[in-house]
Amino acid sequence: MSSTSVSRRDILKSLGMGVIAGGVLRTIPAQAAEYAHHMVMSEKAAAATGAYTPKYFSAHAYKTLQTLCQTIIPPDGGSGGAIEAGAPEFIDLITSENDAYQLKLGGGLMWLDETCSDRYGKPYLDCTPELQKEILDLIAYRRNAQADPSLSPGIEFFSFLRNMTADGFFTSKIGIEYLGYVGNTFLSEFKGCPPVPGL
After folding, report:
1. What CA–CA distance (Å, rounded) separates 56 from 38?
2. Alpha-helical segments (H) within the chain
3. Can you tell me the distance from the alpha carbon of 50 to that of 195, in angstroms, rounded to the nearest whole number?
4. Triad 167, 3, 32: Cα angle to 5°
5. Cβ neighbours of residue 11 under 8 Å, at least 6 residues apart?
6. CA 8 vs CA 2, 79, 81, 169: distances in Å
7. Which of 45, 44, 36, 2 shows the shortest CA–CA distance to 16?
8. What is the tens place of the pLDDT at every residue in 126-179?
């Protein structure tokens, strides 16, 4: 198949298959992830508001997704976070083309809101930062499912979302700059690996 005959849907499905197989950074060609980020940037540039319009998630679910992504990879002094890198848009775009992701992520966001409503009387976004941290601490560790099996769906969801957020971040321009990745460059001389600090 020639590169000119590859459709948007083919690229997004290949991204989805790669994440199932173990993560975009390990199995998906960088060009496919770059293409997804390019699609998001093109849409933002063409929109009158400069904003991305979610393809799969409702407005409420997308806002929750953004909040979770920013919690997973917040901005720091030298780099933007998941929001600035376009991770939520990346996740939404891939999810819009993948039924398994729709079930995992859409179902996971519903689980999170329902669990917060049962425990705290309100959905996740309406909880205080302390309550949000409390529920995320419960679903961040697989060992918590041993003490409370009802957390298992949330733990699976949050683990998957962390991987997707990392993939969206580290395949973006911001993420690549954060890593200091320069690609294939010519070295006139290789002086060996740098020394390991502290040894």
Report:
1. 18
2. 8-21, 24-27, 30-46, 59-72, 82-85, 87-95, 99-101, 107-120, 129-139, 144-147, 152-170, 173-179
3. 46
4. 5
5. 32, 35, 36
6. 14, 29, 26, 20
7. 36
8. 999 999 999 999 999 999 999 999 999 999 999 999 999 998 998 888 888 888
Contact, 162 vs 80, CB < 8 A?
Answer: no
Q: What is the pLDDT of residues 77-115, one digit of tens each?
A: 878 999 999 999 999 988 888 888 999 999 999 999 999
Q: What is the CA radius of gyration of the chain?
A: 19
What single letter denotes the amino acid at residue 35? Y
pTM of the model: 0.78
> Could you read off the pLDDT of 24-56 as tens digits, one per residue?
444 355 667 777 888 888 888 888 888 899 999
- DSSP per residue, 15-45: HHHHHHHT-HHHHS-HHHHHHHHHHHHHHHH
Cα 172 to Cα 147: distance, rounded to the nearest angstrom: 38
CA-closest candidate to residue 154, choices 128, 126, 135: 135
38 CB neighbour count, 10 Å cutoff: 11
Which amino acid is present at 71? T
CA pair distance 116, 119, nearest whole angstrom = 5
